[in-house]
């Protein structure tokens, strides 16, 4: 009977957990009813098209959840739990439809679910320009596209689409990217002679592949999920793919976290039709067209420096409309409605051929 006190302690703790679960359930239900009432108020206002999802409001709620957190759960885990509660409550108002660069099992799908939660309706598309078209046509509410990787740099197709699109950037997602080497049930692990993956993933795992499979052929395909799908019928092939793709296609992970840089991450953009109000901690992205002439870059950047606006990214792309005209994509901290940002943009606009605000949006929360 020596273990009787321990059993009694466990029973008492389990009873306490059951009581807390009941309280949590009641509070979540009460929150959901409030969300429904918010939808009723919005629908009754008669102000035209109703916006159920407000990116700035979502970001504020998540930040408050992290500020209130007293542990032992991490801030990120606490925000993730609140994200799913908000996603489920928002679905009671109106399920959010989201297009993403597919197929299923890609990192872009993970980014979509991380940002919108599991209650969002996600739809895969095979190309970035298709995601833009779906959002522009109103077939979905938002799109999710990759824009840059910490190891391999920018995704040029995404930047190019902004040149001819009126869509706005409504948010961003930062996703820590871990790569796995996966095989199918028919793979002879000792005879792997070809490895499939997206070109960027192959590049991000170059040193690991050189060390472990120096003679294997590396074959670039459209996505890591496509690589995972393809190897199911090849006995001598493996793929580099995320855990989600391995689970989706019922593959075995034989080596995990094979990326060369342990802090490898990818940034994704949320694109939509409407502008986003300030959340209190925002970024703004602009597109600037200018002639390639001495001092051009200095003229563009000097007002930001003088007004102490922190630039987080400057990327150059050749323009499609002029041989000697270049386009700069610039990200900086602050919202376009902040007085100092507004004055700076007015000054920059007078110095360049064209300036287009791509969007002002909340910084990635988690």
From TrEMBL:
Pathway recorded for this protein: Amino-acid biosynthesis; L-phenylalanine biosynthesis; phenylpyruvate from prephenate: step 1/1; Metabolic intermediate biosynthesis; prephenate biosynthesis; prephenate from chorismate: step 1/1
Cellular compartment(s): Cytoplasm
Catalysed conversion reaction: chorismate = prephenate; prephenate + H(+) = 3-phenylpyruvate + CO2 + H2O
NCBIfam families reported in the protein's UniProt record: CM_P2, PRK11898.1
CDD domains: ACT_CM-PDT, PBP2_PDT_1
Gene3D superfamilies according to UniProt: 3.30.70.260, Chorismate mutase, Periplasmic binding protein-like II
The protein's name in its UniProt record: Bifunctional chorismate mutase/prephenate dehydratase
Any one of the GO BP annotations: chorismate metabolic process
Residues with site note (Essential for prephenate dehydratase activity): 266
EC number(s) reported in the record: 4.2.1.51, 5.4.99.5
A GO CC term assigned to this protein in UniProt: cytoplasm
Its job: Catalyzes the Claisen rearrangement of chorismate to prephenate and the decarboxylation/dehydration of prephenate to phenylpyruvate.
Domain Chorismate mutase: 4-97
SMART domains tied to this protein: CM_2
Span of domain ACT: 285-362
Segments forming domain Prephenate dehydratase: 97-273
GO terms for MF: chorismate mutase activity; prephenate dehydratase activity
Organism: Gilvimarinus xylanilyticus
InterPro entries, alphabetized: ACT-like_dom_sf, ACT_dom, Chor_mutase/pphenate_deHydtase, Chorismate_II_sf, CM_dom_sf, CM_II_prokaryot, G/b/e-P-prot_chorismate_mutase, Preph_deHydtase
Record's keyword terms, sorted: Amino-acid biosynthesis, Aromatic amino acid biosynthesis, Cytoplasm, Isomerase, Lyase, Multifunctional enzyme, Phenylalanine biosynthesis
Record gene name: pheA
């Amino acid at each position: 009977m020596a273990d009787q006190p321990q059993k009694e302690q466990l029973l008492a703790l389990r009873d306490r957990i059951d009581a807390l679960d009941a309280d949590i359930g009641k509070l979540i239900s009460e929150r959901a009813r409030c969300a429904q009432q918010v939808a009723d108020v919005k629908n009754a206002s008669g102000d035209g098209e109703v916006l159920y999802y407000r990116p700035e409001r979502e970001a504020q709620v998540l930040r408050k959840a992290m500020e209130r957190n007293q542990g032992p759960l991490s801030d990120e885990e606490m925000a993730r739990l609140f994200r799913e509660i908000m996603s489920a409550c928002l679905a009671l108002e109106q399920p959010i439809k989201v297009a993403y660069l597919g197929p299923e099992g890609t990192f872009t799908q993970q980014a979509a679910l991380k940002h919108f939660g599991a209650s969002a309706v996600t739809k895969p598309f095979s190309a970035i320009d298709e995601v833009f078209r779906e959002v522009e046509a109103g077939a979905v509410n938002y799109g999710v596209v990759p824009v840059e990787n910490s190891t391999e740099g920018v995704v040029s197709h995404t930047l190019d689409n902004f040149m001819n699109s009126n869509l706005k950037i409504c948010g961003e997602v930062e996703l820590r990217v871990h790569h796995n080497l996966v095989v199918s049930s028919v793979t002879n692990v000792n005879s792997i002679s070809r490895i499939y993956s997206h070109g960027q993933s192959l590049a991000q795992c170059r040193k690991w592949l050189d060390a472990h499979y120096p003679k294997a052929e590396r074959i670039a395909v459209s996505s890591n999920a496509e690589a995972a799908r393809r190897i199911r019928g090849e006995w001598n092939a493996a793929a580099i793919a995320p855990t989600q793709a391995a689970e989706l296609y019922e593959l075995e992970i034989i080596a995990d976290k094979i990326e060369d840089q342990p802090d490898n991450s990818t940034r994704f953009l949320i694109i939509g039709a409407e502008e986003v109000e300030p959340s209190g901690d925002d970024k703004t992205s602009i597109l600037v067209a200018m002639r390639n002439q001495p001092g051009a870059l200095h003229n563009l950047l000097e007002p930001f420096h003088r007004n102490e606006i922190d630039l987080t990214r400057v990327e150059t792309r050749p323009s499609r409309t002029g041989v000697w005209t270049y386009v700069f994509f610039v990200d900086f901290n602050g919202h376009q409605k902040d007085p100092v940002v507004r004055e700076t943009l007015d000054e920059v606009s007078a110095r360049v051929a064209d300036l287009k605000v791509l969007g002002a949006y909340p910084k990635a929360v988690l």
